[in-house]
Amino acid sequence: MEMFITILLIALAIFILVKSAKKKISGGCDCGSCSSHCPMYDEKK
Protein backbone atom coordinates (compact mmCIF):
# COMPACT_ATOMS: atom_id res chain seq x y z
CA MET A 1 0.00 0.00 0.00
CA GLU A 2 2.84 2.40 0.82
CA MET A 3 4.39 1.78 -2.61
CA PHE A 4 1.13 2.71 -4.32
CA ILE A 5 0.88 5.99 -2.42
CA THR A 6 4.55 6.79 -3.12
CA ILE A 7 4.16 6.11 -6.84
CA LEU A 8 0.98 8.19 -6.91
CA LEU A 9 2.72 11.14 -5.22
CA ILE A 10 5.71 10.93 -7.56
CA ALA A 11 3.44 10.79 -10.62
CA LEU A 12 1.49 13.81 -9.36
CA ALA A 13 4.69 15.77 -8.75
CA ILE A 14 6.00 14.96 -12.24
CA PHE A 15 2.66 15.96 -13.78
CA ILE A 16 2.69 19.32 -11.99
CA LEU A 17 6.31 20.00 -12.95
CA VAL A 18 5.71 19.15 -16.62
CA LYS A 19 2.56 21.28 -16.74
CA SER A 20 4.42 24.22 -15.21
CA ALA A 21 7.36 23.79 -17.57
CA LYS A 22 5.06 23.73 -20.61
CA LYS A 23 3.43 27.00 -19.53
CA LYS A 24 6.79 28.65 -18.92
CA ILE A 25 8.25 27.44 -22.24
CA SER A 26 5.23 28.71 -24.18
CA GLY A 27 5.66 32.12 -22.57
CA GLY A 28 2.72 31.90 -20.21
CA CYS A 29 2.58 32.80 -16.57
CA ASP A 30 2.95 29.79 -14.29
CA CYS A 31 2.40 31.53 -10.97
CA GLY A 32 -1.34 30.94 -10.92
CA SER A 33 -2.36 34.58 -10.63
CA CYS A 34 -0.42 37.37 -12.29
CA SER A 35 0.09 40.19 -9.84
CA SER A 36 2.38 43.17 -10.01
CA HIS A 37 5.32 41.17 -8.60
CA CYS A 38 5.17 38.60 -11.40
CA PRO A 39 7.61 39.24 -14.29
CA MET A 40 4.93 38.22 -16.79
CA TYR A 41 2.57 40.94 -15.45
CA ASP A 42 4.20 43.68 -17.52
CA GLU A 43 4.11 41.56 -20.69
CA LYS A 44 0.37 40.84 -20.34
CA LYS A 45 -0.57 44.52 -19.93
Describe the structure.
The protein has one domain. Helices cover 67% and strands 0% of the residues. It has two helices and no strands. The N and C termini lie far apart (49 Å). The relative contact order is 0.10.
Mean pLDDT: 78
The overall strand count is: 0
Q: How many distinct domains?
A: 1
Question: Which of globular, elongated, flat, extended, rod-shaped describes the shape?
Answer: elongated
State the end-to-end distance. Answer: 49 Å
Share of helix among residues? 55-70%
How many helices does DSSP assign? 2
Instruction: Report the radius of gyration as a whole number of Å.
Output: 15 Å
Oligomer: single chain
What is the H/E string? HH
Classify the beta-strand content into a percent band.
under 5%
Which runs of at least 5 residues are low in confidence (pLDDT < 50)? none
Query: Biggest sheet, in brief?
Result: none
- Which structural class do you get from the secondary structure elements? mainly alpha
Secondary structure blueprint with pairings:
Layout (H helix, E strand, L loop, with lengths): L1 H24 L13 H6 L1
Organism: Clostridium ganghwense
Protein name: FeoB-associated Cys-rich membrane protein
Task: Compose a concise summary of this entry.
The protein is an all-alpha fold and 45 residues long.
Please name the defining characteristics of this protein.
45 residues, 2 helices, FeoB-associated Cys-rich membrane protein
